[in-house]
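Researcher: Structure prediction, please.
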Amino acid sequence: MELIIERTKPGRRGYSLPKQDVPLYRLPENQRRQTHAPLPEVSEPEIMRHFVNLSTMNHHVDKNFYPLGSCTMKYNPKINEELVRLSGFTKLHPLGSTATAQGAMQLMYELGDYLKAIVNLDGITLQPAAGAQGEFTAISMFKAYYNKKKETRRSILVPDSAHGTNPASVNFSGFRPLTLPSNEKGLVDIEKLTELMTPEVAGLMLTNPNTLGLFEKNIMQITDIVHDKGGLVYLDGANLNALLGITRPGDMGFDAVHFNLHKTFSTPHGGGGPGSGPVAVTKMLAPFLPAPVIAKKDETYYFDFDLPDSIGKVQTFYGNFLVMVKAYTFFRIVGHEGLRQISKSAILNANYIIQSLKDHYYLPFPGYCMHEGVLSGRKLKERGLRTLDVAKRLLDYGLHAPTVYFPLIVSEALMIEPTDSESKETLDAFIETMIKILEEARENPEVLKNAPQSTPVRRLDEIKAIKELKIRWKT
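Model: Predicted structure follows.
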């Protein structure tokens, strides 16, 4: 069909379709504008500058350092964005025939195999669209497993340093979260674990390395204690960036683990998505996987719904496919040795920062960390300052702040994760800035209290927000 360009008003250009006997492309008369929309006359350079300037108001990993602890805000190769735009991926319909989607299904099947090999587990689902949904899926499978055995288990142990989604996932899955305290070294208290792990406890949710960036050296003892009481052990895979190619959760005794494809395997995330949280499990739990799973017979891939003990679907259709494409691309580019190098670089970068700053900020748990480390800004209290002030001041230097005030067991916490994709030059600039901010705190603390000063949005008035809280309920 030929597109006709016609003048609709001096200085304004409109686009219309040719007249036809059957006006399929025209809106009904009562839905058409009677006057022209009051759009500004803007040149192409002006509109481009407008959106580019808007983009610079946000901080993102393409712009500068983003050491957000526990979130693995790593650089995402732009080739991923090119590949997910291929029409063979974007034009697939979830209700289409599997015969027309064999390439996509092969990708998903092979991705599942890669993920299982990384953790040395036997079954996998790609359905969950986020890490938290992966947690919910795995713990729901725990519930189904015990229901099948006709065992009544009411609780799941959750460490006091756990991610906030862990106890929420436990609740949603029909269990009660039971807090497991850390010892003086920031690791699982073995005596408390032994005491709390009773026949009424279904298992343990654990992050390893934990949210302090510390590896649970007694992990085999921990999983044995849980298994000896008939329990199951779940690994929160948010910190998998420290384990790739070095050690495998299945070898440590974990029964289930979720992956954050959008953290560990290169999909941009933040602000709610996009995400993908596949879950890998042992053979014992595989019958309870969400249906369908992707299977292969001869050279044909198909959806296998024959899972009578399945917990059912947890996500519409088969998961967040384009995120899977990016993760698959990442795997094929870096290979097995590349995965190992990722973890080695992430661990080296984190220790370089923490060891460089430990004499300036307080290090609550001395020693070496894994891919992230936790400092404390509690010394700032002497000058009437908080960790929050450091975080806000970093924005004035063009750097994103680390995670602050988490984990909760560290006062004035600064949780720093530099990721594998950052250079030594970037780390040095961050270290120098953190030290410079301490100098400002000593010489002119008001600079920190009034930060940030160079951002489009200034600091919120927290006291006013608390006193004049405005909540609106929409029905």
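Model: DSSP finds 15 helices and 14 strands in the chain.
Researcher: Thanks, that helps.
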